[in-house]
């Protein structure tokens, strides 16, 4: 009798099919993943596909009609010395910024995990550069580097360290350093927070045991702390590399690639050629050179994340 | 006593809050840039002219244009002017202003998407968008019927002779005179400012030596450097293209212009010109740090409000005489385009005619920054220039601009501003050509050859598309 009732309830209850779907892990997995997949397809895969298609076309800003031109766009960019300069700069800016971001991020992380009054205020202030929109902070730096009104320049002159204006953005070597400095300034906080998480994850008894054994600060740093936080340091480094490699706002706002294209990077040159110059096909071909390194970085990040899971 | 006690968190927040409010109020009360703010206008604004549209209009009209360098143009005139026209003709008008630097990207995005604004304005030629915009020959023809013949530099900046299409409508432009500081040039024997490039070099060098004030002529990837570079090039007899749209950049005249720029940089300027941006002229002039700039009067207008002493000391000279001629590029060329997919093209065209009929207001509210494309369209203009209504001292200092059409030309001179010229302009090839030599990275011959190697493929590409004449 009871069994009959259950069957009747099962047959009549409208909630049963829902419950069955909710119980099916395979269905749930796809249902949960679908929004993310759709999102990635729409904002990553489609634009990427378009960029590849445009790179082999003669599409311009004023004529969206598609005509296949084969490798002509690539031939033209290979003949252009500015492209090679931009490619080299992209790697140099990324490598130097990444090295500085790791070192300074580690130092900052060590400070932030220490106990001191006002730690939360300091943590908040330290994070500000990262939370500020990059375009906004770049405009602020543009004023800091201004040829007339630069406060950095003013301080150095009043301290007697320099006699004349430095013209931060008017000299290639200083302009390069200025761009790298902004990248480091805005990405060190992110790296520091990521590394701070790693430091806080180290069991205190490990550190205590090292101290009891009389291990000094530097030895603990290089033989205990860094090995135990290496996966997170790698994640911080790779995030820093990706954000530097793909950014065009800092260069575009500070120097527009100048002087004489000496600070041009792939993304800014692709923008100038593709949008300001109107040659979208060639701009897309330039931008495609960002892809191999980004792919490698993505693979490395995923491998580092797996190491963290194992760890 | 508590009021003088130690700082509590509450007191700190109160104090910082009040400070913030005070600063906000201070910023809000900063003198405006309009005819009503700062220098008061001594003549009344022109009244708005209205002509019934040719046909019945309805629907919407969305307009995208730059944030004018003279803010009163937008805040005191244009936005309300457009809205009122919409009310009169039954069209719902919306106006969006964005930074001039963002407009090319916005146009490209809207044309690629096939939707966006019905009417778009930019301050340089938009020839590269020819295939996605409507032919505005009918609007130009109607304006010619009403006001006479359009100025040649405006026609050449809106008509592609290779296709016969008016890819844009150019109802106005802005001259690009030299702005100099009289108190600096007087001691070097040139109280009237330089009249030739040679005088600019010699006088500028002496000012830098004796008074430690440099010239400000950009060699950077921005619009002012583009204009300055062309003025020098043409004055030495060089050009990017000839009248038949053939590339002629690699010439002894161009090399001579580059050699001159090398000397000009070495003797009169500093590395700041390689980091020049669109506001560098203004900043330098207002700060009193520059003896001469090539710019519109916007830098001067800014200094009238922020540094009146410098403003009173600033005077203007026409295009400098070079070995061949004395011409300069227009500082701004207004190009209005109507995208092909605009559903409100009729309203856009009627608005353009209405705007043209009121160019006197555009000139007035831009404080004589905007000039009309038809010489008789703003009859008051010469009088205003001779006796500036916006507080110049002396009041006739702008009179030199009365003859600006004699020494101003379009950026493709001596040919038209075709799509190839537009792309060369957008890639800043000319400022970089000078900068490489000035910085000693290349010889003049090498940098000119490099520029030619960059320019020729651009022309070839557009010629293949039939948008550049084949000679």
Contiguous low-pLDDT stretches of chain B (5 residues minimum) are: 1-7, 16-39
**Cα Rg of chain A:** 26 Å
CATH architecture of chain A, please?
Orthogonal Bundle
Residue-averaged pLDDT of chain B: 90
Please provide the count of β strands of chain B: 15
CATH superfamily of chain A: MetI-like
Principal-axes geometry of chain A comes out as flat
The helix/strand class of chain A is mainly alpha
Description:
The complex is a heterodimer of chains A (311) and B (471). Chain A has 311 residues and is mainly alpha-helical. Chain A has helices spanning 2-12, 16-23, 25-55, 72-78, 81-113, 119-131, 134-144, 151-158, 172-201, 204-212, 217-246, 249-254, 266-276, 280-287, 291-310. The model of chain A has no long low-confidence stretch (mean pLDDT 87). Chain B has 471 residues and is α/β, with parallel strands linked by helices. Chain B contains 19 helices and 15 strands. Chain B has helices at residues 9-28, 72-89, 103-113, 137-147, 152-155, 182-185, 197-211, 223-235, 252-268, 280-286, 298-306, 308-313, 345-357, 359-365, 381-386, 404-407, 419-426, 429-438, 444-464, and strands at residues 60-66, 92-98, 119-122, 159-160, 165-166, 172-174, 178-181, 214-216, 290-294, 314-317, 328-329, 332-333, 335-337, 371-372, 408-409. Chain B is globular. Chains A and B meet through helix 13 of A and helix 3, helix 10, helix 17, helix 18 and helix 19 of B.
Keywords:
heterodimer, A: about 300 residues, mainly alpha, MetI-like fold, 15 helices, about 75% helix, flat, B: about 475 residues, alpha/beta, D-Maltodextrin-Binding Protein, domain 2, 2 domains, four-stranded mixed beta sheet, 19 helices, about 45% helix, about 10% strand
Fold topology:
The complex is a heterodimer of chains A (311) and B (471).
Chain A: H1 2-12, H2 16-23, H3 25-55, H4 72-78, H5 81-113, H6 119-131, H7 134-144, H8 151-158, H9 172-201, H10 204-212, H11 217-246, H12 249-254, H13 266-276, H14 280-287, H15 291-310
Helix pairs in contact in A: 3-14, 4-14, 5-9, 5-11, 5-13, 6-9, 9-11, 11-15, 13-14
Chain B: H1 9-28, E1 60-66, H2 72-89, E2 92-98, H3 103-113, E3 119-122, H4 137-147, H5 152-155, E4 159-160, E5 165-166, E6 172-174, E7 178-181, H6 182-185, H7 197-211, E8 214-216, H8 223-235, H9 252-268, H10 280-286, E9 290-294, H11 298-306, H12 308-313, E10 314-317, E11 328-329, E12 332-333, E13 335-337, H13 345-357, H14 359-365, E14 371-372, H15 381-386, H16 404-407, E15 408-409, H17 419-426, H18 429-438, H19 444-464
Parallel strand pairs in B: 1-2, 1-3, 8-9, 11-15
Antiparallel strand pairs in B: 3-13, 4-5, 6-12, 6-14, 7-9, 7-10
